Amino acid sequence: MRRHEVAFFAIVAAASLAFLSPPAVAHTGEGINSGFASGFWHPILGWDHVVAMVAVGLWGAFLGLPALWILPVVFPLVMAFGGALGVIGVPLPAVETGIALSGVVLGLLIAFAVRAPLWVAAVIVGVFAVFHGHAHGTELPEAFNAYGYAVGFVVGTGLLHLAGIALGFLTKSSVGAAAVRGVGGLIALVGAAFLFGFA
Amino acid sequence: MRGHICILVLAVGVCATRAEAHAFQSGADYYAQFLEGASVILRYPEALLPLLSLGVLLSLWHSEGMLRAWPAFLIGQLAGIPLAAVVGPWAISAVLIAGILTATLAALLPRHIRVEALAISLGLGLLVTAASLEGHGFLELPVFIYVGIVFAANLVTACAAGVTGFAMDQVEANWMRILWRIAGSWLAAILTLIFAFTLTAN
Fold first, then answer.
1. Which of A77, A143, B35, B60 has minimal CB crowding within 10 Å?
2. Where are the domains of chain A?
3. Exposed, middle or buried by CB within 10 Å (0-12, 13-18, 19+), for B135?
4. Model pTM?
């Protein structure tokens, strides 16, 4: 195994371990630790957010290069813009509907292995990113450190993307590609459950 | 060498005494003055994150990007010291906007050019120093506070550039470069949210 492959797998393993670690309960009172933990777990503990973030990485696997890498670069930027709108109080209609719809649409795009042009993919992902970011921005707990929340929220979301990309590498085999398309269908169902009020 | 710089940055961060946000209340102790100056950079995300973004951008531009841009960065910092007398609280917003621009360019542009790297180094150096010394007249403060600010600003940027450059030297595969562009994207996202918090705080 070559050196850069070892380094790549080490990073993927580190990201996986981050997800496996239990929530910290020390220092729960106040300060940067609580702010970071709150921001970090906010996207990870909400299934509507999780499926959409992972879906972005998975869809990138079907879109191929350069979309595989461009989407995770663009998504945090646009999501932070939506988050900033939420923080400063700019209203956005149907935020929860938009979030649920993102699961449905992205899940179906994965399930049918749709290979859209890069600009179309960027627009679809960007629009949904604004809804997700806005929800995070408006739900900022006032008791927690805002800086820590911002860092935790971006890192948590980014790790979900990287997890999606890592899973997307399964598409290199035909069995893996079928499994990923199945996961896409599952993501669409989860999104639909939120959309129609079953979750 | 880069490892030593990283350890030094951590040591300065850990040892820094408690600062009263930019009020500069150190007495005659030169070391305390130096640490108080350095802590303005190291303890405030508004100054720290834009400098980290600059370090990442410089190494994405060129393997010796930090060395090439250092003169422009230093000139900007020195120009920022007298400029501090005329800037108001808006300066921190200007630093954040410059930081968002720097991190966004690092994330989105596949390649960078010399003019861009030098202009951002000059501008960010100027803005960070001016915002850190906001409202203080030229050489009104003890000299070691200025030394601390300039030292910490250079150390943070050099460390970020060093880590980025070291990683890309060790792993020449394209995904390593992409990984640092993703880091730039995360920095831009965090800075955008901090900018929003700053707006609501005002």
1. A143
2. 46-195
3. middle
4. 0.80
